[in-house]
Structures are given as C-alpha cells and as structure tokens.
Design a protein that fits this description.
Length: 352
C-alpha cells in the first residue's frame, strides 16, 4: 500500500471508530499495594542493602552494561513508563513495552494500573495524565517517563506544557486505578513530606515518535499546531523522532532541522531523523530486536551517534529509535534510583 493510500485508510478508520481502545486485559486490583494515599513523609526504606546502594551510586548513567542492568538496576526502584499509542492503534505501544521488558525493565512499571495493559490511549485529557503523574510520584518516588507514538507524542508534549502551567496553575490529582479525579491539587512529596502542586512536577524523560502537525489539523486539534514543537522545563530530557517522507505525520526531509522540537528553557532536547524506509504505523514494533543476538548486542552497547550494524540478512526494522530510547530509559532509571538513595541517606545522616 502506498503511503497516500495508507493515510486515507487511517483517516477512514478514525472517522469510523473515533477513540479506539486496546484489547482488554486482566484489571489491576484497586486494593493492591500503592492504591491508597500514603500518610506522607520520606519513602519507606528502599529494598537495597548498603553494598547494592554503593554499586548503584557508582554507576555511570550513560555507560550501563547489561550486567549492571541485571545485577544492580534490576534491584533498584524504577520509574513508571507510560506508553501512549497513536490515534488508530493498528500497532499499540505493547510491542515496545515487550522490548523494554526483554531488555531488563520491570514489567510492572510498564503496566496501566487500571487494566494491566502495556499501552495507554492518546484520546485522553492531558490534564488527567498530568494528574496521574503526580499520583504515581506520591506513591513511587519518581515521576513517570512518557513515550508517545504519533498522536501519543502530541499528548506527551501537551502534558509537559500542562505541568508547566499552560492550562492554569491548578490541576486535580488523577487516580489512574479508579480513573477519576481526586478533590485536591497537591500531593505529598515522598521525599520531604510537604505538599506540592501537580503543576511544577518535572518528568525525567519523554519522547515523541513520528508526531506531526498534519494529523493535528485533520483531527481538529488546532490548539496544538503552533506549539507542537515547544518543550518546556517540565521535562529534564526530551527526544523527538522524525521519519523522512512521513506522509501521515506530514514531515519531509529536513524536518528535524527546519521545524525541530525546541526547549523554552533548560530542558535538554534532541531531534533524531530516522531512515526513510521506517514505517510510521509500525514504529513501536521492536520486540524482535531484543530476541536477536546481533541487534541486542548492538543495542546494549549503543550510545547516541553509534552507526547501525550492516548485515544483509539482519532485521533492523526500528533499530535506531529502539536503541536510542533504551539508552535514555536506563539512563534515567539509574539517575532516579541514585536520587532516591542519596535522598534517603541524607535523611538517615540528619537523624544521626
């Protein structure tokens, strides 16, 4: 199917089904650990012995070996990762979650706590997502990371802008288990015990895959057309991925340079151009890369700028962004875990 015909098919599907839902999975028990609001104060003791804490603090976040993932990071708290799929999820974010799990990320931190699925709808109010980030922070000690595909990337950017105050200075905390707003605009900071507003929280890492302005126009999302590439300080690191000649997103060669994602302040923002033969629809399909010895080994030693392997019989579909996102996810997993260990040690030191 040509890319123009593919676009037409997707637009027809949008009109036919509206806001689609992923296949149902077993729901998460609302009474499970973390469902109740904590009383406040410092997080409960981290499940790490002093030796593991020392090894964790000694890690270089940008040079983490597979052995360190298995032996050190796997024992440390991991930020939740929210994968937002596109408007018509022919391929949801579940295959990408499966890739992250195969690389060593905890499966529980990738599941939607309401239904157990590995993917989230992008037909969601951005303020609800922002409020849910605060709900998770209060219980888990880290603000979740966001990875959005197509429309999910637009929602990712909009959430970041909401956290920076674009929709007002008050956002309700959103309970993702009951899928309802709570009657409060603040959460208890798990490190200090003090109340802090939802607005002002900072996401450690976020990414947008093949998100363009064309679909914003076609779906009537006019308010995001002019600010789609604006990344505020509510995220520490953001990466935007472009496909050359992406008919669905409406991007062409040079888009990453001509209309890049731009920081408004201190956020670290990168723009990455993917090969023109990558498919917009199937970008989240990456599980096969972790299953192959050659591609997995390349991903494990990857650093931004690393040239991809060249082998005639090697399936390298989606290799570049999969490796790049895994590099950033494990980096911020490490940084967040180190932050928690240092914060808890500081409290213990102050008590003595």
């Amino acid at each position: 199917m040509s890319r123009v015909r593919q676009l037409c098919a997707i637009l027809a599907a949008v009109l036919a089904v509206g806001a689609p839902r992923a296949l149902a999975a077993d729901p998460v028990d609302p009474a499970a650990p973390g469902a109740a609001r904590p009383a406040g104060g410092m997080l409960a003791g981290l499940p790490l012995d002093p030796t593991t804490e020392d090894r964790l603090l000694a890690l270089d976040p940008e040079r983490i070996s597979p052995e360190e993932v298995r032996e050190v990071l796997a024992r440390a708290p991991a930020p939740r990762v929210i994968g937002l799929h596109g408007s018509v999820p022919i391929v949801t974010m579940a295959p990408f979650a499966e890739f992250l799990i195969a690389m060593g990320y905890p499966a529980e931190r990738l599941r939607n706590p309401r239904d157990g699925r590995y993917t989230y709808s992008s037909f969601t109010d951005s303020r609800e997502v922002a409020g849910a980030l605060a709900w998770h922070y209060e219980r888990e000690g880290s603000v979740p990371m966001l990875i959005g595909h197509s429309q999910g990337g637009m929602l990712t950017v909009k959430v970041l802008q909401d956290l920076a105050g674009a929709s007002g200075d008050r956002i309700n905390v959103w309970n993702p288990v009951s899928d309802a707003a709570e009657d409060r605009f603040t959460v208890v900071d798990p490190l200090t015990g003090s109340d802090r507003p939802v607005v002002g929280l900072r996401v450690p890492y976020a990414a947008a895959l093949a998100t363009g302005s064309l679909m914003r126009v076609l779906l009537g999302q006019w308010g995001m057309v002019s600010r789609l590439r604006t990344v505020p300080d509510s995220v520490a690191e953001f990466t935007g991925y472009f496909i050359e000649w992406d008919v669905i997103a409406g991007t062409s060669p040079g888009s990453a340079q001509d209309n890049p994602y731009r920081p408004t302040g201190t956020a670290q923002v990168r723009n990455v151009t993917l090969p023109a033969d990558y498919s917009h629809v199937s970008l989240p399909a990456a599980a096969h890369l972790a299953a192959n010895e050659v591609t997995r080994a390349w991903i494990e030693r990857y650093a931004p700028g690393e040239p991809p392997p060249v082998q005639a019989d090697l399936d390298t579909r989606n290799l570049l962004h999969a490796a790049d996102i895994w590099f950033s996810v494990k980096k911020h997993w490490c940084l967040e875990a180190q932050r928690l260990v240092r914060a808890q040690r500081a409290v213990v030191h102050a008590r003595h």
